[in-house]
Write a structure and sequence with these properties.
single chain; mainly alpha; globular
């Protein structure tokens, strides 16, 4: 019976440490998480769901790349690494500009929210995601067969990614009441834009 066999190969005691590591590494401030906070504060949770879905989808792509072992091959190509960095930095700088210059004091969230496609691009091009996920993957072993171990980690870390990204989005949306006052709204927008640029700069070091 495959069910009991599969259950016997899973190292259940390793799940807890892996989750702790994932929350600490993947959940720390970075381009994706800070951008979700900024999107939540500027556009609210509902209008940012597409962007959230895009970032999660991009993160799952990175998870699969790490699980299948192609990460080292991809990052070993200097040109590809440069393309990822340029795409990520360009999109984040554009998003930071949009946030910093957003209209304030109207009581309404104006303009188009970041898109699903933009979120997916950032999720894949985010250099912190590749490093963080690779480190998390190597922190524990969930099963003896390599394929089972990889599949279990992809499934578990995908759920962790959804949780982490949603929390950051909701935290950002909690700033919304401050945006009703023009002066405080401008400070919040500028602070989030600066944090987004700073997180990107640290990720690219």
């Amino acid at each position: 019976m495959p069910g009991p066999l599969l259950a016997a190969t899973i190292h259940w005691g390793s799940i807890g440490p892996l989750l702790v590591t994932a929350l600490a590494i993947m959940g720390s401030p970075g381009p994706a998480t800070i951008s979700l906070t900024a999107a939540g504060s500027a556009y609210g949770v509902r209008r940012s769901l597409g962007y959230l879905a895009g970032i999660v989808a991009g993160t799952v792509v990175v998870l699969v790349a790490v699980a299948t072992g192609i990460t080292a091959t991809l990052l070993a190509v200097p040109a590809l690494r440069s393309v990822l960095i340029v795409l990520s930095a360009a999109y984040i700088l554009w998003l930071a500009y949009r946030i910093a210059t957003a209209r304030v004091g109207t009581g309404r969230r104006l303009g188009s929210a970041p898109s699903l496609a933009g979120g997916a691009m950032l999720g894949v091009a985010n250099p912190k995601a590749w490093v963080a996920i690779a480190a998390t993957f190597g922190s524990a072993r969930l099963a003896d067969p390599a394929t089972t171990d990889a599949a279990a980690k992809v499934a578990l870390l995908s759920m962790v990614a959804v949780l982490i990204m949603t929390v950051w989005l909701v935290v950002g949306a909690s700033f919304a009441p401050a945006l009703r006052d023009p002066r405080r709204a401008r400070v919040v927008n500028l602070a989030l834009a600066a944090a987004l640029v700073a997180a990107t700069a640290l990720a690219l070091r």
